[in-house]
């Protein structure tokens, strides 16, 4: 029989699969421990599984994707280009940095779509448009490839995950949620929800739906503007959402989960980077409970017609926010040499695939 892709399956789905292969239902739990807990993809090493099952699993590759390029920035950022079963190429990133407490912080940035439909002018991920959603298994397979990088470097397992790669995560909501449940579950990868951040361009209905799922994921919202007119110029989909609706949904997320919300603000030279913009942003978030602002100096995107802000503009913007009592951080530029920094996850290899 043809074996479906096991990675991305829930316990019930794994149980149905092993029973169909002639095994007892309890074998599904053992299989989940190997697949997710130990991130093992070689059936021969799954020593407590029945030999007959191992032989059947070995006849079909458990990973449906392959790494076709790996580039290291030399500053703790490694980008992987991953080819999916149909030739589609996505990218994921491993970031290594020392935390404020001196502990090593190992973060995976993963993709949820091939391309993106949101059309943000400053982001390279959507240059080729949206090709398709990723399945739960394709989302999770990125962790297996990143795990191999960690092992080669002699590093431990991830401490954090940010869903900030290619695509709009909440546009692929059902597949995202199945992948995150497996990532978080004790029977899965076992990564705490508070170590997982979901980033969104701001889809209010989906933000509210995420709040009702019962998880304490961190939420990051790509705001990038202080008025609807300004935001629609940068993010065309804002015409159907609007700033107020997004901020109201974010406040509801906080009330439901009690998790702080981070507002991402990409500084674009001459577009949204003035002291006046900073003042309006502070006013916009004045009544928001426990908000953080992440300032992201734009990385150059070929053909966008936009430019990076000057260093003085970034410093002044940050100063105005701090003086207004806003908790603000300026994101360090990482991985530009390998096009792995925020806004640089692009399908640059796709035309050659």
Q: In angstroms, what separates the terminal alpha carbons? A: 30 Å
The profile of the biggest β sheet is: 10 strands, mixed
Rough shape? elongated
Task: Quickly count the domains.
Answer: 2
What fold name goes in the CATH topology slot of the largest domain?
TIM Barrel
* CATH-defined architecture of the largest domain: Alpha-Beta Barrel
| Widest sheet, order of strands | 1-2-3-4-7-8-9-10-11-12
Order of helices and strands: HHHEEEEEEHEHEHEHHEHEHE
Task: Please identify the oligomeric state.
Answer: single chain
CATH hierarchy, class of the largest domain:
Alpha Beta
Low-confidence stretches: none
Taking Cα atoms only, what radius of gyration do you get, to the nearest Å? 21 Å
Treating each run of at least 4 consecutive H or I residues as one helix, how many helices? 10
Find the count of extended strands (DSSP E, 2+ residues). 12
Give the name of the CATH superfamily of the largest domain. Answer: Aldolase class I
Mean pLDDT: 91
Helix % is 25-40%
């Amino acid at each position: 029989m043809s074996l479906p892709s096991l990675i991305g399956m829930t316990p019930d789905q794994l149980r149905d699969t092993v029973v169909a292969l002639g095994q007892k239902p309890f074998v599904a739990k053992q299989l989940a421990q190997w697949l997710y807990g130990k991130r093992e993809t070689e059936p021969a090493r799954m020593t407590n599984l029945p030999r007959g099952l191992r032989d059947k699993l070995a006849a079909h590759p458990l990973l449906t994707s392959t790494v076709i390029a790996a580039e290291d920035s030399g500053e703790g950022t490694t980008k992987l280009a991953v080819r999916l079963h149909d030739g589609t190429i996505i990218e994921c990133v491993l970031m290594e940095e020392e935390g404020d407490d001196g502990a090593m912080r190992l973060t995976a940035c993963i993709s949820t779509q091939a391309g993106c439909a949101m059309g943000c002018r400053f982001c390279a991920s959507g240059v080729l448009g949206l090709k398709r959603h990723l399945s739960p298994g394709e989302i999770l397979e990125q962790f297996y490839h990143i795990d191999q990088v960690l092992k080669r470097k002699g590093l431990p397992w991830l401490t954090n995950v940010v869903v900030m790669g290619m695509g709009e995560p909440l546009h692929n909501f059902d597949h995202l949620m199945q992948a995150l449940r497996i990532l978080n579950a004790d029977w899965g990868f076992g990564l705490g929800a508070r170590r997982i951040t979901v980033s969104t361009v701001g889809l209010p209905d989906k933000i509210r739906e995420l709040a009702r799922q019962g998880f304490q994921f961190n939420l990051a919202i790509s705001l990038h503007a202080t008025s609807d007119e300004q935001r629609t110029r940068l993010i065309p989909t804002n015409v159907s959402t609007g700033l107020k609706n997004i901020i109201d949904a974010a406040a509801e997320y906080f009330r439901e989960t009690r998790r702080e919300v981070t507002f991402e603000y990409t500084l674009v030279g001459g577009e949204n980077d003035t002291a006046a913009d900073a003042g309006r942003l502070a006013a916009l978030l004045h009544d928001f409970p426990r908000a953080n602002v992440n300032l992201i100096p734009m990385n150059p995107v070929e053909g966008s017609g936009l430019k990076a802000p000057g260093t003085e503009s970034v410093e002044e913007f940050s100063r105005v926010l701090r003086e207004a009592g806003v908790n603000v951080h300026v994101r360090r530029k990482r991985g530009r040499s390998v096009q792995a920094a925020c806004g640089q996850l692009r399908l640059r290899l796709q035309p050659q695939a």
